[in-house]
Amino acid sequence: EPEVTQTPSHQVTQMGQEVILRCVPISNHLYFYWYRQILGQKVEFLVSFYNNEISEKSEIFDDQFSVERPDGSNFTLKIRSTKLEDSAMYFCATLKTRLYNEQFFGPGTRLTVL
Amino acid sequence: GQNIDQPTEMTATEGAIVQINCTYQTSGFNGLFWYQQHAGEAPTFLSYNVLDGLEEKGRFSSFLSRSKGYSYLLLKELQMKDSASYLCAVRGHNAGNMLTFGGGTRLMVKP
């Protein structure tokens, strides 16, 4: 069964450093998402991406964040200058089309900012 | 905006039935979802309701009342592997089809 993959599984970085989290969506899916989950808290929406542009973003997704689909397969989330409070699990999710309901989540990248 | 409430924790016995409630207030509604999340893992889709009523899928059923802003997830014949967090999420009328999640209900199944 096709699945969403994410790399790395765990990223440790120093405060102020840039990180790039990578996702490979399911191949025929058109909508891509990033969510995050701070330890012990709820899953929070960051951004949705469709047709090579951002379709929706939350208040969390400020100027420090950006997304890209550089090569038609990877979908990346970049955090320019990480803060301690960016430590969280970051999930990529994909949706086939708006006619479908199930968003498929990747296994997540645990980001630890020291 | 969206506000979604569900109990923080529940405990039930193996073989029993448990009902996890979710209430929501939203500025727009285009479906309610239940996801299961085991500790340290990704959420996995369980069910979707957009019309009032009960949707049954094996041991799991989900109910929706749009007028009351209320849903529940019913788990029958509980198994130890059902110990997990159950996340209620709402989709609004937005271009991105994003989901807004509640805080999740941690279910502990005891022998």
Put simply, the count of helices of chain A is 0
What is the beta-strand fraction of chain B? over 45%
Q: What class would the helix/strand composition of chain B place it in?
A: mainly beta
Secondary structure category of chain A: mainly beta
Dominant shape of chain B:
globular
Topology pattern of chain B, helix = H, strand = E = EEEEEEEEEEE
The proportion of strand residues of chain A reads over 45%
Which shape of chain A, going by the Cα principal axes? globular
- The helix content of chain B, as a percent range, equals under 10%
List low-confidence stretches of chain B: none
How would you characterize the largest beta sheet of chain B?
A: 6 strands, mixed
Q: In words, what does this structure look like?
A:
The complex is a heterodimer of chains A (about 110) and B (about 110). With about 110 residues, chain A is mainly beta. Chain A has strands at about 5, 10-15, 20-25, 30-35, 45-50, 55, 65-70, 75-80, 90-95, 105, 110-114. In chain A, the strands form 2 sheets. In chain A, strands 2, 4, 5, 6, 9, 10 and 11 form a 7-stranded mixed β-sheet that branches. The termini of chain B are far apart. In chain B, strands 2, 4, 5, 9, 10 and 11 form a 6-stranded mixed β-sheet that branches. Helices cover about 0% and strands about 60% of the residues of chain B. By secondary structure, chain B is mostly beta strands. At the A-B interface, strand 4, strand 5 and strand 10 of A face strand 5 and strand 10 of B.
State the main characteristics.
heterodimer, A: mainly beta, 7-stranded mixed β-sheet, 0% helix, 50% strand, B: 111 residues, mainly beta, 6-stranded mixed β-sheet, 11 strands
Summarize the structure.
The complex is a heterodimer of chains A (114) and B (111). Chain A is mostly beta strands.
